Amino acid sequence: MRRYLLGRLVSLVLSLVAASLVIFAVIEIVPGDPASYMLGLKASAETVAALRTQLGLDAAPPERYLSWIAGMARGDFGLSYTYKVPVSDLVAQRLTVSLPLAAYALALTALVAFPAGLLAAARRGRIADATVMGATQLGIALPNFWFAMLLVLVFALHWQIFPAGGFPGWEGGIAPGVAALTLPAIALALPQAAILARVLRSALIETEGQDFIRTARAKGLTRGQTMLRHALRNAMIPVMTILGMQFSFLLAGAIIIENVFYLPGLGRLIFQAITQRDLIVVESVVMILVFAVIVVTFAVDLAYAAIDPRLRRRA
């Protein structure tokens, strides 16, 4: 187990280094000068050059890369060109929206997907299976931003149960914050629940054909008991992979939904930083999100080893 952990840690570090190089290289080749953008078209060349020196943009790319990496290692992500505040403060402020939203959406995803996948696998080839598979196909096909606008029309404008957009902050209480995140979380959870339910159904059906399942049935267990006690645990490896990927997507990929609901999250921060050519914010936030994805993948690998002892022995 120790060798397995060490191998995964080395892979994590190498992935972070490779990701940082790719992110920095991509940002470097993006056209446009942040200093010229900030000062406007009428700024003189001397003023632009002075601002580039102030921002550290006139240094050589390797020097800027090493300075950026060293700063992140110390917890210093730099100063935003646009907002004139530390990037770490911006990230901490936006995480109070994006992290609860991702967790909320993931909880709704699991709450819908697990019963649907279990029902479809238990009733394979019957009406319930066809109904669940048809609903999941519809959930995958519907664009989440269109579904989000439909939710606003029905639950915010017509019935006025939930707010149509904005975020009041957690200072006013948990209930208003959760209410503001409910419709965005549902819009994000719908396609993810559809994907997860289909994966769970396929994994359960594949597991049901194995010898230990037939042995359990021969001992007198019902199909439902066998599925819950034996098949579900062995089908969790692909399901956990999807869950880890979904959490990473929900944390980083909710740009459209955050703009639909005017939520001040990480996705909207990245969108604004790109349009404003705030390179230090783009680099740092994307690197933080990459780190979150890699850490979640590492946690999923550890969960693999906990669920399947064969992985530990193989390592």
UniProtKB/TrEMBL annotation:
Record keyword Transport present: yes
PROSITE patterns with a match to the protein in the record: ABC_TM1
Topology versus the membrane: Multi-pass membrane protein
Stored CDD domains: TM_PBP2
Keyword line: Cell membrane, Membrane, Transmembrane, Transmembrane helix, Transport
Pfam families in the record: BPD_transp_1, BPD_transp_1_N
SUPFAM superfamilies (UniProt xref): MetI-like
Matches recorded under Gene3D superfamilies: MetI-like
Principal location class: membrane
Membrane spanning stretches: 12-30, 101-121, 142-162, 174-197, 235-257, 285-307
Cellular compartments annotated: Cell membrane
Keyword Signal annotated: no
Source organism superkingdom: Bacteria
Record-annotated ABC transmembrane type-1 domain positions: 95-298
Family: Belongs to the binding-protein-dependent transport system permease family.
UniProt protein name: ABC transporter permease
Source organism: Albidovulum sediminis
